[in-house]
Design goal:
- There is one protein chain.
- This protein has seven helices and ten strands.
- Helix 4 packs across helix 5 (167-177).
- The chain starts with a strand and ends with a helix.
- 32% of the residues lie in helices and 26% in strands.
- By secondary structure, the protein is of the alpha/beta class.
- It has helices at 40-52, 74-91, 100-105, 148-155, 167-177, 192-201, 222-230; strands spanning 5-10, 15-22, 28-35, 64-68, 95-98, 116-124, 127-133, 139-146, 160-163, 181-183.
């Protein structure tokens, strides 16, 4: 897309990442990624300021902002989406959401004829968030929360390329049941360049910058429930 400059951000997984690209996502202006389990809220905006300092024209020259919307870390997703929306509102540009599944899977789709790319994100408690794509990029398994065994059964037979933070869980289960599967790529977080590439082609009308959750948060507002039970003000 000539004449475009996109800012891509991702805090959905175990990293805070940002990049700026011109025209298409292969023409990178700046890229930064910091591995982290916590602290995304404190790290993200300084990271954005750093990559934007290298962008010709700065924030007024941006034409789009893309953000990874999950599934993944509940807190991290909220941090990234809030930042993307704020930047979009301040600059008057579209904000688009990119599935973390798609960002993980994109580099591997079509690498081998007939191979299915399955993205598994560790959902804890022995479960994974899972989505699978065929070699043409079509969805063959819709996003869901599942055990590794249920996920493999739902995908069916065939050669699997596993990506994402839950890839090792699926690989172990595949080995146990005799399925053909290999872990293809790094699992901590998707490549921020893929968020930029997918963000460039996303339609803002159908890809809003909105959190993509597949289950409620594990944390429960226990204290508030106790106050309500006791009839006390919150």
């Amino acid at each position: 897309m000539p004449g475009t400059m996109i800012l891509a951000i991702d805090t959905s997984m175990s990293a805070a990442s940002a990049c700026v690209s011109l025209g298409d996502a292969d023409e990178l202006v700046a890229i930064r990624s910091l591995p982290m389990e916590r602290g995304h809220a404190e790290a993200l905006m300084p990271l954005v300021a750093e990559v934007m300092a290298a962008a010709p024209g700065g924030f007024p020259a941006l034409t789009r902002v893309a953000v990874a919307v999950g599934p993944g870390s509940f807190t991290g997703i909220r941090v990234g989406v809030a930042a993307a929306r704020g930047i979009a509102l301040a600059t008057g540009i579209p904000a688009v959401g990119v599935s973390t599944f798609s960002a993980f899977a994109a580099p591997w789709i079509g690498q081998q004829q007939g191979q299915i790319v399955a993205c598994a994100i560790d959902a804890r408690h022995g479960n994974v968030y899972i989505q699978a794509f065929d070699a043409s990029g079509h969805v063959v398994l819709s996003p869901r929360l599942s055990t590794p065994r249920e996920a493999l059964r739902a995908i069916g037979a065939g050669s699997l390329c596993l990506v994402g933070s839950g890839a090792a869980l699926l690989a172990a289960e595949a080995q146990a049941i005799g399925s053909e599967a290999i872990v293809c790529g790094p699992s901590a977080a998707p490549d921020i360049r893929q968020v930029a590439r997918l963000g460039l082609i996303a339609d803002p009308a159908s890809a809003p910058a909105r959190p993509f959750y597949l289950k409620p948060p594990d944390a429960k507002p226990v204290a508030i429930r106790r106050l309500r039970t006791a009839g006390l003000p919150e």
